[in-house]
Amino acid sequence: QNLLAEKVEQLMEWSSRRSVIRMNGDKFRRFVKAPPRNYSVIVMFTALQPQRQCSVCRQANEEYQVLANSWRYSSAFSNKLFFTIVDYDEGADVFQQLNMNSAPTFMHFPPKGKPKRADTFDLQRIGFAAEQLAKWIADRTDVHIRVFRPPNYSGTIALALLVSLVGGLLYLRRNNLEFIYNKTGWAMAALCVVFAMTSGQMWNHIRGPPYAHKNPQNGQVSYIHGSSQAQFVAESHIILLLNAAITMGMVLLNEAATSKGDVGKRRIICLVGLGLVVFFFSFLLSIFRSKYHGYPY
Q1: Do 121 and 42 belong together in one domain?
Q2: Rounded (10°) angle between helices 263-291 and 233-258
Q3: Which helix (H) or strand (E) holds 20?
Q4: What Å distances lie between residue 175 and 66, 172, 184, 283, CA to CA?
Q5: Each residue of 2-15: pLDDT tens digit?
Q6: Are residues 216 and 120 part of one domain?
Q7: CA distance 121 to 42
Q8: pLDDT per residue over 45-67, tens digit each?
Q9: Residue 125 and residue 232 share a domain
Q10: Domain limits at 125?
């Protein structure tokens, strides 16, 4: 009982200084692995040193800090849950002990027994947004954390600048507003919205997936997620460009069919449009096959 009280007191002291407790191998084995424990520990295994070049680790760490701060400064804060972090350069022996070869990884260590499969957060499928981590923690510990994010005025400032820019443009062109009725301009704006939505930008905003995935064993970078249940940010950019290229091909085909210009020029436009549609649609279909295994079912 004295040992348990000492461990809890020490963790509470560290938590009062910093919401996320940094741990090396010795601290991890004493406070996380070794009994007795009557508290849960969330551990983020990561590699934040610049030489590791893990941009995903930095992004995930920002969300993890938001979540830990939300817990630390909430009215429900108690000594039943602690947030810790183990950096590879400070605890390589811990990574070896757990046979861990990728980062970032989130694990829950329960008060009793060993972690089960569900105690490892499915980052590739769910993403690392603080809200998703909070939901996972609630499932594992029954501790509900309401995420509070620091105020971010960048969106408000950007909106104000956009409104000012549009208002200024309308004022300068107040005597000639025919451009408002330009069908091509509105069509381009609508296409931009369609491309953004169909490429999965909203999913990225909600789930917060990594930009890409770098295999720590061979250093190979993957821009396309291998599962149909998730995607990378880079993947949505690729899909956006492919859809734009296919649409351009369709526009050229339509132009070649409906215009009344030179026949030779129309034939060239038709071939270019057909080439764009065939090539980029084939590329898009190959990505679809790689994610939806067994296609065409």
Answers
A1: yes
A2: 150
A3: strand 20-22
A4: 50, 8, 21, 47
A5: 889 999 999 999 99
A6: no
A7: 10
A8: 999 888 887 878 888 999 999 99
A9: no
A10: 3-141
